[in-house]
Amino acid sequence: MATEHLANWAVNLSPSSLPPAVSTAAQRSLYNYIGCTIGGSHHPTVSKAHKALSPFFGPAQASLLGTSQKTDAQHACLLNGIASHVHDYDDTHLATIIHPTGPVASACLAYTQYASTPITGSDLLTAIVAGIEASCKLGLAVWPAHYDIGWHITSTTGSIGAAIGVGKLMHLSETQMAHAIGLAAVQVVGLREMFGSDTKSFHPGRAAQAGFVAAIMAGNGFTSSEQALEAKRGWANVVAGGGVPQLEKFVGELGKVWEVQRNAFKPFPCGIVCHPAIDGCIQLHREMGDKGFDVGDVEAVNARVHPLVIELTSKRLPKDGLEGKFSVFHGCAIGLLYGKAWPAQYANEVVTSDEVVRLRDRCNAEADQNLRADEVVIEVTFKNGQRLEKHVEHAIGSLEVPMTDEQLDEKFVDQCLPVLGDRTRQVGELCWSIGKAPDVARILQQL
């Protein structure tokens, strides 16, 4: 049975059973997560959530990353989870489009500080691996029908992954872990309709909070069905969207095929499906500079893209930065205009600037069933009739062209420098060292 198998696997996973490459992948995922969370910590979306909920904060148990503040562990899960996703810059499991680390790490780091005894870096990474694997295996089991019907798969699987991560740190028994899975499974959250609004980043925050609560309650004897995933009216059949869940197949792969190694990192803070178009336009920006072309002379930009780009990122008139993240047209415009697509290029004032809007209005995208999700063909036509073309076979950030540690460092610094100032590189070094820390809470106090 899938619930029992998942609980058994998670409880018995140990640091020594992780292949070195898996531990490295988990450390990279955690490093990227912390950078994204610090970078998003002062975003207006996070500030609005903080202001609304601060009257209900409890004792100072866990840090809000990127600030000097602490709050109760539940609200730390929620607010750090929101911050981790607000720039849409977090990691992506490309086979399912799940952003797995946000819910899991937000919950695990909160528990690490709440716990009465020190938690080591190796135990933390093991818990994060357990949560990521659970989220992604469950996502695979209901993909693509679950996503197609409108669920935001990051959070619908993330609550269960977060529960397993925290349950692992709590040393739950197999029965308790099964109950935690059930408690998290009933807290399904996240609709794709919310993309482009504050609520999208609420999804992973709430998933982290839900998973944390599930593990804590299960550890204190609260019960649930022990067939929560596979039962006729259990999680998989209810959320499968008319598809046929493949729980046994993918849960059976736990410990054999490691999904954390298939986790990719975003070079651009927006919907991942439009990354190939941005990558291509950035390359064209450089080529235009080398050949003496002026972006002001662009007559039209035509991109052939994977169909998901049109489905997910076709906002023609984004009104702010959050909507700009779901506009392939904005992505093309800033790539050509600036030769980069950092968080600054998704600021509200950039999305609505006359210069960007003029170029964005000349950008077009057409679905091509023959292209892979990480592939694009772009043609730029100039007013004098000359043309430039770029074919990107695999975009940067894909599994074929992964971001290097050096590129992750550059991304970390760009996000964190406005928040941390001169402390940025020191904090980055601390984050890289978490896996070897004897007490992770001591490091978190310095972030």
Throw out a few tags for this protein.
447 residues; 2-methylcitrate dehydratase PrpD; 60s Ribosomal Protein L30, Chain: A; 2 domains; 4-stranded mixed beta sheet; 21 helices; 8 strands
Model description:
The chain has helices spanning 2-12, 20-40, 44-53, 73-85, 101-114, 121-142, 145-148, 153-169, 174-185, 198-219, 235-239, 247-251, 275-291, 307-312, 321-324, 328-338, 348-351, 354-360, 405-420, 424-432, 440-444, and strands at 62-63, 70-71, 92-93, 263-264, 298-305, 363-367, 376-382, 387-392. A four-stranded mixed sheet has the order 6-5-7-8. Strands 1-2 form a two-stranded antiparallel ribbon. A two-stranded antiparallel sheet has the order 3-4. It has 21 helices and eight strands. 55% of the residues are buried. With 447 residues, it is an alpha+beta fold. Helices cover 53% and strands 8% of the residues. A hairpin with a 6-residue loop joins strand 1 and strand 2. The model has no long low-confidence stretch (mean pLDDT 97).
Structural domains: how many: 2
CATH architecture of the largest domain: Orthogonal Bundle
Number of helices: 21
User: What is the strand content?
Assistant: 5-15%
Tell me the distance between the termini: 41 Å
The helix/strand class is: alpha+beta
CATH topology of the largest domain: 2-methylcitrate dehydratase PrpD
Give me the strand/helix succession: HHHEEHEHHHHHHHHEHEHHHHHEEEHHH
Which strand order spans the largest sheet, edge to edge or round the barrel?
A: 6-5-7-8
Could you give me the name of the CATH homologous superfamily of the largest domain? 2-methylcitrate dehydratase PrpD
Q: Give the strand tally.
A: 8
CATH class of the largest domain: Mainly Alpha
Low-confidence stretches: none
How much is the average pLDDT? 97
Give the C-alpha Rg: 21 Å
